[in-house]
Design a protein that fits this description.
Elements (H helix, E strand, L loop, with lengths): L14 E6 L9 H8 L3 E4 L1 H5 L8 E4 L4 H11 L5 E6 L7 H9 L4 E4 L4 H9 L7 E4 L17 E5 L5 H11 L6 E6 L7 E6 L11 E6 L26 H11 L6 E5 L5 H8 L5 E6 L2 H13 L6 E4 L14 E4 L8 H8 L5 E6 L2 H14 L2 E5 L2 E6 L2 E6 L3 E7 L2
Parallel strand pairs: 1-4, 1-5, 2-3, 2-4, 6-7, 11-12, 11-14, 12-13, 14-15
Antiparallel strand pairs: 7-10, 8-9, 8-10, 15-19, 16-19, 17-18
Length: 409
């Protein structure tokens, strides 16, 4: 399916998405009402469809489940008709609007938003947009909130349901953030709007089904958004790209929003995890042949706030054939496997970055040959750490790492 930017913009949208506030039709403007009255088909969740007047003569159809699998067929069935969809608040804030644009393209979807729950939450608390971040866990892994952990930072969390505040409170306490202030805002904009406050450690609930959680975080520094997390931030069996050489690799991989990294021979997943921590829209596929290590990568990713990291079990280069083309590739192990580097160079997107590490003489020879043939940058990284020598201290050298980095023209 082509990406939205590859499609020709349409002059007449295929579908109009109307946002409805928690106060129902009160805040819906007259222009949106006119679109509803002239629609042939109205799509929406059961709650939204139930709000429509009985006198409205129109086809009403609920969203299919699972949505992404069946949505194309639903839209095709109503092709050529005047279709309106109903959504909560701003349809582009973790809403159906984003899904429809990804499927149809920007010009095919008209958005008529109501106030989002995020805007209402910030207004209730007096939090400027630039002074907090927003994380949605609607139908997603709650561990995504953990990427944002930082003392003094503020986060607005879009809850999945009434159980989210309880689960989030337990997660924060487990990571030393029990003193964080939790404000649970229920049914924002509705007459029954509610507000409950407690620390994560003292939160007892209950919470309304529709709620937004505002976090004023209090706790230790557990990680950073720059490259080079401490080695002990990762559970590993020794197969770990160490902190200093990992930072060097990520500097050359250059994470960019929306781009995909292949972490080949991922070990503990440290490079792929830090790639995703660099920006919420960075993506990683970690390729690892060892099942136990693959499971460990998934646990490390969840604990460090990037639970959507994808782990693929298999041996490169064969397993790479079915993966989407990457914008960057890190090869932390197995560079001497015949054909691997050739496949990586071929599959890499234009202007993509490839970084390969080696510690053996055989790999070093291979990387020197690749540098001689293709150019790039060849670096040998030696790191020494101070350690006790009797009653004194001295330098203990780590094994030197040869690093070849190359950018595709």
């Amino acid at each position: 399916m082509p990406s939205p930017e590859d499609r020709e913009p349409l002059t007449d949208p295929l579908i109009t998405v109307i946002g409805i506030g928690a106060d129902g039709w009160t805040s819906v403007p007259e222009s949106s009402w006119r679109r509803l009255l002239t629609a042939d088909v109205i799509l929406g969740g059961a709650r939204h469809l139930a709000m429509l007047p009985d006198t409205l003569d129109v086809v009403r159809e609920p969203w299919p489940s699972p949505l992404r699998d069946h949505l194309p067929a639903l839209l095709e069935r109503h092709a050529g008709r005047n279709v309106v969809a109903l959504a909560s608040g701003d349809p582009l804030v973790s809403g159906i609007g984003s899904t429809l644009i990804a499927l149809l393209g920007e010009g095919a979807v008209r958005i008529e938003p109501a106030l989002s729950s995020v805007a209402l939450a910030r207004a209730r608390l007096g939090w400027p947009a630039e002074a907090c971040s927003v994380v949605t866990v609607v139908g997603r892994d709650l561990h995504a909130v953990l990427r944002e952990l930082a003392p003094g930072w503020r986060v607005v969390v879009l809850s999945s349901d009434a159980s989210t505040p309880d689960e989030l409170a337990r997660l924060l306490v487990a990571l030393g953030y029990g003193e964080s202030r939790m404000t649970v805002l229920g049914d924002l904009g509705a007459p029954e709007e509610s507000r409950s406050e407690a620390t994560a450690a003292t939160w007892t609930g209950p919470a309304p089904r529709l709620n937004v959680i505002a976090l004023d975080l209090r706790g230790p520094v557990v990680a950073a958004w720059t490259a080079g997390l401490p080695d002990d931030a990762f559970d590993h069996d020794g197969q770990l790209t160490k902190r200093d050489v990992r930072a060097s690799a990520l500097a050359r991989l250059a994470p960019q929003p929306g781009q995909l990294l292949w972490d080949v021979g991922a070990g503990a997943g440290s490079v792929g995890i830090e790639w995703m921590r660099a920006h919420p829209r960075c993506w990683t596929i970690a390729v690892e042949s060892d099942q136990a290590r693959g499971q460990r990568i998934a646990r490390n990713a969840a604990r460090l706030g990037v639970p959507t990291l994808r782990v693929v079990h298999g041996r490169a280069p064969v397993v790479l054939d079915d993966l989407p083309a990457p914008d960057a590739i890190f090869v932390g192990g197995g560079a001497t496997v015949p054909g691997l580097l050739e496949v990586c160079r071929e599959r890499l997107a234009r202007a993509g970055r490839l970084v390969v590490h080696g510690v053996t003489l055989e790999t070093e020879s291979l990387l020197a040959a690749a540098y001689g043939e293709h150019g790039g940058e060849l670096t040998r990284i030696s790191v020494e750490h101070a350690a006790p020598i009797g009653s004194f201290s001295g330098w203990t050298p780590a094994r030197a790492v040869t690093q070849w980095s190359w950018s595709k023209p």
